Amino acid sequence: MGGTPDNMLPPKKRSTSDAMYDPDTKELIVYTATKCKRARAEINYVVCGRKKVNVSERTKCPFSLEVGFRAPTDKVAELGYRNMIFAKQADMKKLWVIHLTPTLLKMSGFDMLTEFHRYGCLGKKGYIAVTRMLADGENTWHSEGDLTRWRHPMPLEWAEEVMGGCDCLEDRRMRDMFVGAAIRYNVETCQMVWVPRMTSSGLMVLYGFDFECETLHVFDPKRCTCGRELLESIHFDICDKLLQGMADCIESCFDGWEVDQSKWKFVCHEYLNEPIASADAVLYVIHYMMYFDGVCVRRPLRNADLYGMKLRLANMVLNMPGNVGHPPENVKNPEVEDTATLSSGAEPFAA
Question: In terms of pTM, does the model score above 0.85?
Answer without folding.
Answer: no
